[in-house]
Amino acid sequence: MSDYGWHEEAKKMWNDKASFWHSNSREMWDEGSRKTIVPFFEQFVPIGSTVLDLGCGDGYGSYKLWHRGYDVTGVDLSNEMITLCHHRMNDEMDQLMFEQADMLDLPFKHDTFDSLIAINSLEWTEVPAKAFDEISRVIKPGGYLLFGILGPTAGPRAHSYNRIYGEDVICNTMMPWEFEKLATEQGYSIIGSEGVYKQGVDKSHLGRLSQELKQSLSFMWLFMLQKQ
């Protein structure tokens, strides 16, 4: 690693983008690229489970999980995002908590949570393998981990473009098939997966393609893992 303050720069960027994200998050979770995430999560994780929402943004995804009956703790690198999370809460949300923290140093004991949801957050770490180790530490044996990894067609990948010029960037270029390899090398079972695509993709054609080709067309790929 270089001396570049990757995570500090990422924190600054997401602090700056907090208001923009907040103005769009509800649409993304209800109608857009994140609308299938909660239904996919519910296929594997029992209602009432404790959930760590890692990279929770303004907390709307955490709220949706809480509303479905999960005990949710949201964590984000950006303190501005966490402020927005707290604005969303009311007195009835006694099982919905938020905390500012870096996923490389989570403020939780070993084996704290039954499950994890981390949507487009691992990509904003300098060394995803180190973040994966820390994430794994706080999940109970037998627990479920849902990761959403940006596909090749995802707009946020523009944040890594300046690496072409040798400049420091804060978006990792890890692809879905690379995450899949990382997860299996770490001893995890992938028990479910599905793709999220832009509107221009004709899904009727996808059935003829290999998994790798499907992932190459994706905006995001969802992986459900289970900890042994």
From TrEMBL:
GO terms for biological process: methylation. Residues 52-147 form the Methyltransferase type domain. CDD domains: AdoMet_MTases. It comes from the Bacteria. Pfam families: Methyltransf_11. InterPro entries: Methyltransf_11 (IPR013216), SAM-dependent_MTases_sf (IPR029063). The keyword Methyltransferase applies. The keyword Nucleotide-binding does not apply. GO terms for molecular function: methyltransferase activity. Keywords: Methyltransferase, Transferase. PANTHER family: TRANS-ACONITATE 2-METHYLTRANSFERASE, TRANS-ACONITATE 2-METHYLTRANSFERASE-RELATED. This is Class I SAM-dependent methyltransferase. It comes from Alkalibacillus silvisoli. The lineage of its organism: Bacteria, Bacillati, Bacillota, Bacilli, Bacillales.
